[in-house]
Amino acid sequence: MNKHCAPSQHSSENKLVNTKKRHLKPEEYCRPKKFKSKEICYGPDVDIVALFKLELQRILINSNILNTTITDILPYGSRISGLNISNSDVDININYVSKAPPKTVIKSFANKLRQSQVFIKVFALIHAKIPIIKCTHQNTGIDCDLSFNNVSAVHNSHLINQILSMDYRIKPVLMKLKMWAINIGLISTNGFSSYSFYWLGLFIMQIMGILPSIHDLQKSVPEVLVSQWNCAFSKNPQEYITNKQETLSEGDILHFFYKYYSNFNFDKFVISPYTGCPLLKKDFENVEQLPDKLWRYKQFYEENKECQKLLFLGTCEFKMYTQDPFQHNVNITARVTPKIFEKFIYACKELKP
Q1: Distance CA 325, CA 313 (A)
Q2: Cα gap 264→266, rounded to integer Å
Q3: What is the Cα–Cα distance from 97 to 67, expressed in whole angstroms?
Q4: H-state helical runs in 23-77
Q5: At what angle do helices 250-263 and 338-351 cross, to 10 degrees?
Q6: Contact yes or no for 156/330 (Cβ under 8 A)
Q7: pTM exceeds 0.90
Q8: Which portions of the chain are predicted below pLDDT 70?
Q9: 30: which of 119, 164, 309, 323 lies 20 to 30 Å off by Cα?
Q10: Do residues 202 and 174 lie in contact, with contact meaning Cβ atoms separated by under 8 Å?
């Protein structure tokens, strides 16, 4: 096996203590009763993300799981980016180190969640490209997705949250695009994710001059490396905006979105929020033709060129390529099937001015 394709896992040992289950009282055998934590108040104003994090800490960190050490529990997704609605899922990343294989560890996490009675409908999707555990919080009925050692997703969510503060039009435009995409079936397991659709909208605003490129947001701040990718971004991004186009309304931005993607040549170009402009696909085959600002990807290519599935153009059997703003070898629209892609183009053409 090529050394660049082989997964690696850090190891650590930790002694943990098993939790004890409460014995049922005689009257409870006849009527079901929801588990209720004594440590947490489920009031109407409870912070759902903080609640889930606390519950997971109590269930997993205090459990003896295969000499596995949980190093951090970090929320991400729409509730962190600020693009959530009332019933949005809660996304949580669990950082851990272990001597055991990842699939074994994730199965053990899933078993602990089932035993807790705090989370129900627990499914471990260990064969997915990014393994996750899907579950539902018993007392609130809100779904929760757990991912593992997925720190870049946490940084991505905080990046979007920062971007929302840059212009009052950004959040309403992204929310309208998301609801439109959901209503016509574009956001699905074989289509766009909400995250990838947000970046289609943000890329449009980069093209229009409302937003800077991610490269510009990284220029003057210290690096924050996850693997070899820089996940840093400026907390004072206003200085990078050259043309805010303040006369344009939210409707104008939406119309530009539909028009732009109706005419975009997906066979020839890549959508690149990092550079803030389209890139030629053929340049990813001859990486020396890529802009100098993509030097990290050039370096990654040289280190991994014998393992095609790790390279950007090796991530998708279809033609839609949208580069992750941080991990430049990741295509965030890789799962969009031709059927969904054609539906997207057709819907844009129907709405373009």
Answers
A1: 16
A2: 6
A3: 9
A4: 48-56
A5: 130
A6: no
A7: no
A8: 1-46, 237-244, 315
A9: 119
A10: yes
Query: In this structure, what token pair is assigned to residue 286?
Result: 């001859």
Are the C-beta atoms of 242 and 257 separated by less than 8 Å?
Answer: no
Q: In what order do the strands lie in the sheet with 119-125?
A: 69-76, 90-97, 143-148, 132-137, 119-125
Per the structure block, which two tokens stand in for 35?
Answer: 């588990």
Q: Residue holding tokens 């009763």? A: 33
Report the interhelical angle of 170-183 vs 194-208 (nearest 10°): 130
**Residues paired with 132 in a beta bridge:** 125, 147
pLDDT in tens, 54-101: 999 999 987 777 789 999 999 999 999 999 988 899 999 999 999 899
Question: Quick one: three-class SS letters along 176-219?
Answer: HHHHHHHHCCCECCCCECHHHHHHHHHHHHHHHCCCCCHHHHHC
Contact (Cβ atoms closer than 8 angstroms) between residue 212 and residue 247 = no
Q: Tell me, what amino acid is at 186?
A: L
Predicted pLDDT at 15:
35
Largest CA distance in the chain: 74
